[in-house]
Amino acid sequence: MSKDIDPVLQIDDGDTVRIHTVDCFENQITSPDMDFDTVDWSRQNPATGPIFVNGVAAGDVLKVTIGKIELEDRGLATVGPSGGVMKDYIEERFIKMFDVDTALNTTGFNGLEIRLNPMIGVIGNAPYDAPVPNSTPGAHGGNMDCKKITEGTVLYLPVFHDGALFGLGDVHARMGDGEVGISGLEIGAAVTVKLEKAASINTNHPVLIDEEGINMMVSHESLDEAVDESVRQMIKLLKPHTDLPLPEIAMLMSLVGEAQINQVVDPLKTARFFIPYYLLDHYSIDYGQELKS
Amino acid sequence: MSKDIDPVLQIDDGDTVRIHTVDCFENQITSPDMDFDTVDWSRQNPATGPIFVNGVAAGDVLKVTIGKIELEDRGLATVGPSGGVMKDYIEERFIKMFDVDTALNTTGFNGLEIRLNPMIGVIGNAPYDAPVPNSTPGAHGGNMDCKKITEGTVLYLPVFHDGALFGLGDVHARMGDGEVGISGLEIGAAVTVKLEKAASINTNHPVLIDEEGINMMVSHESLDEAVDESVRQMIKLLKPHTDLPLPEIAMLMSLVGEAQINQVVDPLKTARFFIPYYLLDHYSIDYGQELKS
């Protein structure tokens, strides 16, 4: 993602768009038996975009309401020696194709039925400075690989350049927290999103709201630091809404907050810190109210 | 915890015991207004034990079925400059007392009602070699601070010495994943557990089974390494039960496994890797079958 790529589409603040995406290998892999030497591995995690949103300026926050995620009917997963927790134990790249039943929301894994949890792996705005590869997450969003970025959720993304220059891709039909093998069930899709300028939230990192509560997402080389910073950023977000002194907020985070993991396999790792909705209600914080109506 | 502490109780394989515990400061703190200079902070995280279990030998695995956790009606939480994610931002130790309603399973935090999730912070066997402070987790168990160690779950602990030399303490009335502030809602309790030699599981790290599935717990200085090793240990546990080659197991873990966090504030951090029950069913793995009957 980059501020220097020309927009492929210009829309107005509040418009809804339906975005077609290809899988994380740009649909180059069609069979587990093909010659992988013909695959260009540099074409990883393509995002569709950038989209220029009129009326959204540098310094704003972009509110992305995730609508329908329409999956294609065939996807793939991969493991290998180049990445993932088990990379030192796997000698060569292994690829498996999956037929996906979008009506029943299931797929099969050697006779085991697995339910799908369709989600968006790469989603973000153009980063502040130098281009960031789509494989890498950061304050701009990018490859956060969060299974909570799914239908019905609202994602808030910092805007570094006029128009936001938004893009998304790398949809997964199924993934667990950690994405420990390096890939989810990678698949092409059509994703509908509503893009608008956020009215009430100010954040330096991506924030996600769903039916359960609010999640602060921070990416860092070290998971330890990503977790710690996600807590600090959540406290920063919460503090203006309460008279509690800092020690009491920290204590409250310890009792009701949850340190969670998006992924541990991308060039930077991503943690999310979650607090439940009743905390937002108690402090009259109105981010994402439309979720509750 | 240590192999050199004399047992306080000797029981038979399969016996059930009710264990009284004091809070993580040995009940020294009775009011937020007391003089904390009188508190001996070295008396942290006391565990009740060791209990010698007849018929359990070094090299076995101890199966601990967690029964009732009966909380006292008053507990406390603390934050401060000596530990926790926010330690660099909090100038002096702050302590808050909590009245706990065990009938309604709630407590209050400045007008906010919080539901309790009673859990055991410290639980383990005598470690293999040198004594390990109760504040520190490890392969023997110890201060794993896992909110899933609660009523109705089964914990499997490696046994390093004859009789297991089991102990537990540091009960929390409420805690979120991460325990980011350094303490949960610390409280005295009576905990009923059944202790027996495990028949069917072989593990080098604590394993927990609940209604949802199975969790592998690994502690390490770095959360990054704790997560990675928890995945490797889970695969080691699963591998004998399936004909899938390693790359396919790694892929399956990526799709249906979940990398989760126990705590990030103890001398070692603890990660857990979770796989859902249907995976155990599919591979005819019968750990903890009694949970399902």
TrEMBL record, chains A, B:
It comes from the Bacteria. InterPro entries: FmdA_AmdA (IPR004304). Pfam families: FmdA_AmdA. This is Acetamidase.
